[in-house]
Write a structure and sequence with these properties.
heterodimer, A: 515 residues, alpha/beta, 2-enoyl-CoA Hydratase, Chain A, domain 1, 7-stranded mixed sheet, 17% strand, B: 104 residues, mainly beta, OB fold (Dihydrolipoamide Acetyltransferase, E2P), 4-stranded antiparallel sheet
Chain lengths: 515, 104
């Protein structure tokens, strides 16, 4: 064979492999309204930056007609690329090749990408579109899943890991995304479940559609498995690019700092940012946007446990992770789901050197039988644990209510906050005036001729004395009381002061967070 | 998203806020009634050990339910007498369906 012939053979092999499952399958994927694996990588990465590896990998399975069967890239495209000029490791399962099913060689390609991501210190982005295990390969395919889960876990907190679900993701396959930091789902395209609707119908005689059981809406609104819900694949890739702009490439770096600092669009004004009446709602996202650079807030888990708002923004060009009670939804109470949501986010930020900004306005932990029986003690404890454990700078702004255990839990001084700032509307107390008065003045109220008006009087008495920031400030639990309009400037100064903040990380194998 | 402001009571205070549909009413919550034996999972009744009027004691197996190829024993949660029994062998039952009721 001449050199020219050898090169031609190489070119023809390459061009065949680049077509994945072939023209017909690619056309079918398009008809389903879905992009194919290579289009997806192009949409995610900077133009022409994809650097593919393992295009020529083949499976070695022999049973069930697999012998000699050629599967392009074994159903997954892997490699590296750049997002806004910064390196990332990527893999995209190719549904056009035997349904993107996961065999041993397929898994080994993913594993290799994961190992490289860890060794070279760059985020890992996995695009999932797979029918599941490749049954013909039996336990080898299970080995493949196990190898991936193992690495997802070992990479956790080392490099950011992002999963995009762009098709079915069933059975064991769901656990890789579940182990990663952020899961993106797309309306009417993503499906995730342990057992699909057919199995549920056969075994339990219960009918449910795939969409209702494990569609994008379900996972972003009900289960909390997904962090970002978008309408199109394109939107998912744009959101991932945006998310990455807030994050460092690995735990050994600090997040990138933006040079251009744009002030918020609507700066906070002191007198009408929040209602003075503690029982009246408002949307806390307005406050967040009034504090951060360019009012540019990337909310995480927007549709899940809406009583707490989490997400990324920048102050003074630096990334901060924001955790805020949302008085508009369930009065901003802490419950099982809100605690889980916030705790996991706090731990992510702590792992990747992202300072925490906590905005507090909560009446407390949600009382009730269903919460107690759902384990609010165990789940609520996660919030305490995550804040206490975090060694990044922690800034807290108390806006209005901060009662009881929830005051402590929302990054109080006692859990290691570096700066606690309070607005004059703050009420830091063991509980709200109504509840407290009925307990403290129980006797006076019940023995009064007019218990109703007596209670009102006692509530007022308690309110005058305790519903303010001054008692907490007199103990040094609050560092500063400021007007709302001064919040942004105060936080900029606090962040600059905390720039080199270092606290001892306890030497131990690891803690035992309640899960 | 639709915003429907309602009231949520916490520590004697009425908060005006959005409460999602189907959220348990915090004022009138019940705990599971120990007098009621309900199906914990959808399945089929394979055994009925008691008849109406029979005395049972706590922990006694009153019914056996088969679901997902497993036999699930339904026990009496209190001492008492079987007041009603709503199923017989071979019946398919849904999750949470009332199977039997016991009175003290």
């Amino acid at each position: 064979m001449t050199i020219i012939e050898k090169i031609n053979e190489f070119l023809s092999r390459t061009s065949r492999l680049m077509k994945g499952g072939g023209e017909a399958s690619l056309e079918k994927q398009k008809k389903r309204g879905k992009m194919n694996a290579r289009e997806r990588l192009d949409a995610l990465l900077d133009g022409d930056s994809f650097f593919e590896i393992d295009l020529f990998v083949e499976h070695t399975a022999k049973d069930f007609g697999m012998k000699g069967k050629q599967l392009a890239g074994d159903g997954v495209v892997t490699g590296f690329g750049r997002v806004n000029g910064r390196s990332v490791a990527v893999y995209a399962q190719d549904f056009t090749v035997v349904g993107g099913s996961l065999g041993k060689a397929h898994a080994d390609k993913i594993v290799k990408t994961m190992d490289s991501a860890g060794e070279m210190g760059m985020p890992l982005i996995g695009i999932n579109d797979s029918g599941g295990a490749r049954i013909q390969e039996g336990v080898d395919s299970l080995c493949g899943y196990g190898d991936i889960f193992f690495r997802n876990t070992r990479l956790s907190g080392v490099v950011p890991q992002i999963s995009v679900i762009l098709g079915p993701c069933a059975g064991g396959a769901v656990y890789s995304p579940a182990l990663t930091d952020f899961v993106f789902v797309v309306d009417k395209i993503s499906n995730m479940f342990i057992t699909g609707p057919q199995v549920i119908k056969t075994v339990l005689d219960e009918e449910i559609s795939a969409e209702e059981l494990g569609g994008a809406k379900t996972h972003s609104g009900i289960t909390g498995n997904a962090h970002f819900y978008v309408m199109t694949e394109q939107e998912a890739f744009q959101q991932i690019r945006k998310l990455l702009s807030f994050l460092p490439l690995s735990c050994s770096e600090k997040p990138p700092v933006m040079e251009d600092i744009i002030p918020p669009k609507n700066a906070l004004n002191s007198t009408d940012v929040i209602p003075a009446d503690r029982t009246k709602p408002y949307c806390v996202k307005g406050i967040i946007k009034g504090i951060i650079d360019g009012s540019d807030f990337l909310e995480v888990q927007e549709r899940y446990a809406r009583n707490i708002v989490i997400g990324f923004g920048r102050i003074d060009g630096k990334t901060v992770g924001i955790i805020a009670n949302q008085p508009q939804f369930l009065a901003g109470v802490l419950d099982v789901n809100a605690s889980d949501k916030a705790a996991r986010f706090i731990r992510f930020c702590d792992a990747f050197n992202i300072p925490l900004l906590t905005l507090v306005d909560t009446p407390g932990y949600l009382p009730g039988i269903d919460q107690e029986h759902s384990g609010i003690i165990r789940h609520g404890a996660k919030l305490l644990y995550a804040y206490s454990e975090a060694t990044v700078p922690k800034l807290t702004v108390v806006m209005r209510k901060a009662y009881g255990g929830a005051y402590v839990a929302m990054c109080s001084r006692h859990l290691g906050a570096n700066f606690v700032i309070a607005w004059p509307s703050t009420e830091i107390a063991v509980m709200g005036p109504e509840g407290a008065a009925s307990i403290i003045f129980k006797k006076e109220i019940s023995e009064s001729d007019d218990p109703e008006s007596m209670k009102k009087k006692m509530v007022q008495k308690y309110e005058d004395k305790f519903a303010n920031p001054y008692i907490a400030a007199s103990r040094g639990y609050v560092d500063q009381i400021i007007e709302p309009s001064e919040t942004r400037e105060t936080l900029i100064t606090a962040l600059r002061l905390a720039k080199n903040y270092k606290t001892n990380v306890i030497k131990r194998r690891h803690g035992n967070m309640p899960v | 998203m639709q915003t429907k402001l309602q009231e949520l009571i916490i520590d004697d205070t009425f908060y005006e806020t959005e409460v999602p549909e189907g959220y348990p009413d915090r004022r009138f919550q019940g705990i599971p009634d120990p007098c009621e034996a309900r199906a914990i999972i959808s399945g089929a009744i394979v055994k009925v050990n008691v008849r109406k009027g029979q005395r049972v004691s706590t922990g006694q197996v009153i019914l056996v339910l088969e679901a997902m190829k497993m036999l699930i024993e339904v026990e009496a949660e209190i001492d008492g007498r079987i007041e009603e029994i709503n199923v017989s062998i071979g019946d398919s039952v849904r999750k949470d369906q009332l199977l039997a009721r016991i009175v003290d």
